Amino acid sequence: MSIIKDEIIKLLNGQLNKELYSASLYFNMAGWCDKQGLKGCSKFLYGHYKEETEHFDKFRDFINKVGGQSIIGEMHAPQNDFKSIEDLFDTIVKHEQYITSCINELVGKAMESKDYITSRFLDWFIQEQLEEEELFNDIVVKINMLGKGNLEGRNLYTFDKAMGALDTERHSNSIDINMQ
Ligand SMILES: [Fe+2]
User: Fold this and answer.
1) How many domains does one find in the chain?
2) Of 7, 21, 63, 147, which is the most buried if we count CB atoms within 10 A?
3) What's the whole-model pTM score?
């Protein structure tokens, strides 16, 4: 007997799978960057891959704790090729917007069925999505500042270096471009 409704557990499992998909997407993106020699971006994205696996684990723990069964379902292969670094980060912004809408939807469903245990659990994710969107929007702004449509050469090098430095201080939600 589970503590929360089966219908909500099903939705939570849906989100668990989306978190795993997010991790896999960042994993593929990091590999692409590494191949392009963009070691800073690669380091940042592998860090982000790890964060997504932590989100995945949070859903697993919660589902199991409330007496449900956490289940990984079928997943389509995440994108592994990108036109440019701009294209890659645009893809991330769209993906994170989608994830935010999924979390919002989930909160709505939990509230509808007066499931305050689940809605409280989801509070953390609401805050996390705000930070994610803020961070990636800032990165896209910086990309456009450095070279809208054609980030290359020295500016691409500078951007990559800033991304590598961001990895350790990711909760600042802003990248520091040092042109020196
Ligand atoms: Fe996530």
Assistant:
1) 1
2) 63
3) 0.93
